[in-house]
Design goal:
The protein is α/β, with parallel strands linked by helices. The chain has 11 helices and 21 strands. The strands form 5 sheets. A 9-stranded mixed sheet has the order 4-3-5-6-7-8-9-14-13, sandwiched between helices. A 4-stranded antiparallel sheet has the order 10-11-12-15.
Length: about 425
């Protein structure tokens, strides 16, 4: 199907791979150069690494720098209040300051967030849409970021924020709301409450589309929204500290397109080395659209992988394939990260398995993976179930199990960790 230009919010979305690489390298150099000369924390970061801005001419060069994490930002702001030496413009030019847990004080310029609208544009928001924004406007940047981005798409915004589900329901009815922005769990709470009040949601409401971030959209919940209630859904991956949405879904819903306003790396969280397509690692972000904030190589703690395969929507950026867990839930085995949530996707779908735990050991200088799985039914064919577990685990986690041990249901403690690393490095 031929796509019109109104399919895209800006020309960056359809750059060639070569043009995108040149753009990313140029913007990265400009960002590092500016931060080095204006943000003391950024200059200290480079100086400690023995690096000058001219040494960061390519995205690959970011490996020369350490990763900055949330706790580092908190420590910087405590030592050098209020912005920790990360503010890269004069303080009197700051338009707004938001607060994230920590606390972390985050300066924001309205002129720096127009790009954020592409996440809503890709989801179909346009002039004529009446949209409830259910993100908080109090201290957190979420409400304001979503509000401004929706306005840039031409939509009318109802700044309802969080609060009473009854108020949400009545507002949707009175204003004939067509769009919802918030978390998927909250929208489902609103729908369920409306049904408890005797409303037929699909018949009485005109909600056509919903956009989510803040929590991942489970496939089962997406299916309910779209097939039961007729609501088109889209989601985005956003992180507060570097400034908002980093990746967003298009109508194909085959991963989330990376924003060109950030340089995004997928790295080994232990070494900081960049990984290739399909390899699971930590999402590390450098904003290159915003001269306000001298944050370089921010580690999100979220684990994902990316693909460079073309998308049928026409956007040419790489896509992350979803958040599979946190670095704290990941164990590196035979050079590959095994993440607890990813393992759940492979194991708990197998018929007859009620719970599991993965033990990682080491024998004869080789990592060994043992899966302990609880059986709901002792009469099941254990060999068949073990074969299926092996195949699914290897397909999803990209590493092979060495052994499957079956135990009766209830053997594994309810709050036991999914992955236990028992290796001793001697």
């Amino acid at each position: 199907m031929a796509l019109g230009r109104n399919e895209f919010f800006d020309e960056l979305e359809t750059m060639s791979a070569e043009a995108r690489e040149r753009y990313a390298n140029r913007k990265l150099y400009e960002t590092v150069e500016h931060a080095y000369h204006t943000a003391p924390a950024a200059s200290q970061l480079l100086d400690r690494a023995g690096v000058t801005p001219s040494d960061i001419g390519r995205v690959k060069d970011l490996e020369k720098l350490p990763i900055t994490r949330k706790n580092d930002v908190i420590a910087l702001q405590r030592a050098h209040p209020p912005f920790g030496g990360l503010l890269a413009i004069p303080s009197e030019e700051v338009e707004r300051v938001f607060i994230s847990p920590g606390p972390i004080y985050e300066p924001l310029q309205t002129s720096s967030i127009k790009w954020f609208a592409k996440a809503f544009w890709a989801a179909g928001f346009r002039k004529g849409d009446m949209v409830i924004n259910a993100f908080t406007y109090h201290l957190s940047p979420a409400g304001m970021l979503m509000h401004e981005a929706l306005r840039d798409c031409g939509a009318t915004v109802v700044p309802i924020g969080t609060g009473s589900t009854e108020i949400q329901i009545q507002t949707m009815l009175d204003l004939k709301v067509t769009g919802f922005v918030g978390t998927p769990s909250f929208l489902m709470t609103v729908i369920r409450r409306a049904e408890e009040l005797g409303r037929d949601f699909r018949r009485h409401f005109v909600l056509r589309r919903a956009w989510f971030t803040g929590e991942m959209l489970a496939p089962s919940l997406r299916k309910t929204f779209e097939e039961v209630y007729g609501i088109a859904t889209a989601q985005a991956y956003a992180v507060t500290e570097p400034g908002g949405a980093i990746a967003y879904e298009c109508r194909e819903k085959s991963g989330m397109h990376l924003m060109d306003e950030y340089v995004v790396e997928i790295v080994d969280p232990e070494t900081g080395k960049q990984l290739g397509p399909g390899e699971i690692g930590e999402i590390v972000v450098t904003p290159v659209h915003n001269e306000t904030w001298g944050l370089i190589r921010f580690g999100t703690g979220d684990m994902s992988a990316y693909t460079t395969e073309p998308c049928h929507c026409g956007r040419t950026s790489s896509r992350i394939t979803g958040i599979v867990g946190r670095t704290s839930d990941a164990v590196k085995v035979r050079g590959v990260f095994v993440v607890a949530k990813q393992a759940e996707q492979a194991i708990l779908v197998v018929e007859g398995i009620s719970n599991f735990q993965i033990l990682v050991g080491r024998q004869a200088q080789r990592d060994e993976i043992t899966l302990t799985a609880e059986l709901k039914d002792e009469t099941l064919d254990r060999e068949r179930v073990a074969d299926e577990l092996n195949k699914r685990f290897q397909n999803v986690c990209r590493v092979k199990l060495d052994r499957v041990d079956f135990v009766t249901a209830g053997t594994i403690p309810e709050r036991a960790p999914r992955i236990v690393d028992e290796r001793k490095w001697e």
